């Protein structure tokens, strides 16, 4: 019998580049922000020092203003575009100039709890340094990405969502010009089939945005004023709030009462704002396009991510569950990143329909928090069996279960490790 847990650990070991883990060889040859947070939680199950190391190496890329970038280019590689030269940022270790979902705080608490449970001697000291980095990043989110203190944080580039190619961005991205100062030399379609990757014109828009922000010298206020793409986003805000809850617990444990007060305020603001994004007729949460002022009604997995950080009232929860069930009908693997009967649905193109183990992990935590144990268990079981059947792929086709995108993927391995051990856990708060 194959030992899938061993396989998962072997993938993490193979993708180790010296204290940090690449998402997969060649397609993503650097350290990615939220990937590393998930990976650290995987390591926390069997190698706590290595889990700390993953987060510490990510923090090497933190900017003076607190932002933790979406990519840290620790070592050169020519198998990825856009590389460090395209970003034109000023940090000593080259980094990209945008950020990614702040899973870091959630991961830090997991690693810290595992370390203290084992009685690890330097747990507190190591956790404290990372806690301070995380808090600086949360302050950056609230200052740079919510200057009007609405409670919802905004993304200035689709890649900041982590759901890079989601149909949620279609209307907003169509306004972004396809002209670029940068010569676009795509490397991704040399590694995986073009039908699974973004369209060429969208890639030009992604790079147009990079050019605009590089011209602003990556100054948050200038970027906010110049941004042709600005989305107040519910998935990111839910992750920020969940991380904020984790940091609040740590702040109390570390006796940081002033920080705790500040975190309580951040969390309360985001909790109120997220609740206000619930749309009863749609039976889900919606993000807002800050340029047009319109709700984003494209049905994507992001619409259910607020479960992660909210305790929903029964009527709301029942409605959300009915909607989730509806999206799941007839699928081999759950949960789809786009509602299957939506015109923008594509089963194999990334973020336009496929199933992601890390999204399932977040949804499972959200379902457990809201006491939806049956659905949580179903999702957990399906995630594990589809990995066992189809491999540690980047993502899965919801219609056939086929593994797509990159293979030997780190976050899928981390999800396997965590989800295979979490049957009894009621919630991972
Ligand atoms: C893709 C995903 C993004 C992820 C990265 C590395 O760009 O959309 O969320 O962080 O790959 O795995």
Helix content: 40-55%
In round numbers, the mean pLDDT is: 96
Number of strands: 10
Tell me, briefly, the overall form.
Answer: globular
- Identify every distinct bound molecule in the structure, by name, code or SMILES: alpha-D-glucopyranose
Structural class: mainly alpha
Cα distance, first to last residue? 34 Å
Number of helices: 16
How many strands, which pairing sense, and closed or not: the largest β-sheet? Answer: 4 strands, antiparallel
Low-pLDDT sequence parts: 424-429
The topology string of helices and strands comes to HEHHEHHHEHHHHEHHEEEEHHHEEH
Tell me the β content: under 5%
**Rg, Cα atoms, Å:** 20 Å
Q: How are strands sequenced across the largest beta sheet?
A: 3-4-7-8
């Amino acid at each position: 019998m194959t030992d899938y847990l061993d396989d998962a650990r072997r993938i993490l070991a193979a993708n180790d580049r010296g204290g940090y883990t690449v998402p997969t060889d060649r397609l993503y040859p650097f350290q990615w922000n939220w990937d590393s947070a998930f990976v650290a939680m995987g390591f926390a199950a069997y190698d706590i020092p290595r889990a700390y190391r993953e987060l510490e190496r990510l923090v090497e890329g933190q900017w003076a203003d607190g932002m933790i970038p979406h990519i840290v280019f620790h070592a050169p590689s020519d198998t990825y575009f856009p590389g460090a030269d395209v970003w034109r940022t000023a940090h000593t270790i080259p980094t990209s100039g945008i950020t990614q979902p702040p899973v870091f705080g959630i991961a830090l608490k997991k690693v810290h709890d595992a370390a203290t449970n084992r009685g690890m001697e330097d747990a507190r000291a190591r956790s404290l340094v990372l806690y301070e980095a995380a808090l600086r990043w949360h302050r950056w989110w609230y200052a740079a990405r919510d200057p009007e203190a609405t409670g919802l944080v905004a993304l200035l580039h689709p890649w900041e969502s982590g759901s890079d190619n989601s149909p949620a961005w279609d209307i907003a991205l169509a306004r972004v010009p396809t002209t670029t100062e940068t010569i676009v030399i795509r490397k991704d379609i040399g590694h995986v089939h073009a039908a699974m990757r973004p369209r060429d014109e969208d890639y030009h828009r992604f790079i147009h945005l990079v050019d605009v922000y590089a011209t602003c010298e990556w100054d948050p206020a200038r970027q906010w004023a110049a941004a042709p793409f600005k989305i107040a986003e519910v998935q990111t805000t839910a992750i920020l709030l969940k991380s904020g809850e984790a940091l609040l617990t740590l702040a109390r444990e570390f006796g940081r009462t002033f920080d705790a007060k500040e975190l309580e305020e951040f969390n309360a603001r985001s909790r109120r704002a997220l609740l206000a994004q619930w749309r009863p007729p749609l039976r889900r949460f919606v993000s807002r396009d800050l340029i047009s002022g319109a709700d984003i009604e494209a049905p994507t997995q992001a619409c259910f991510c607020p479960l992660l950080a909210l305790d929903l009232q029964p009527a709301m929860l029942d409605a959300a569950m009915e909607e989730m069930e509806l999206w799941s009908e007839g699928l081999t693997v759950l949960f789809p990143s786009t509602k299957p009967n939506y015109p923008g649905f594509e089963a194999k193109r990334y973020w336009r329909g496929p199933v992601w183990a890390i999204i399932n992990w977040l949804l499972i935590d959200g379902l457990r928090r809201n006491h939806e144990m049956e659905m949580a268990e179903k999702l957990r079981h399906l995630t594990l069996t589809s990995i066992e059947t189809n491999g540690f792929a980047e993502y899965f086709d919801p219609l056939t279960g086929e593994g797509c995108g990159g293979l030997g993927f780190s976050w899928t391995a981390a999800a396997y490790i965590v989800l295979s051990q979490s049957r009894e856990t009621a919630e991972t708060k």
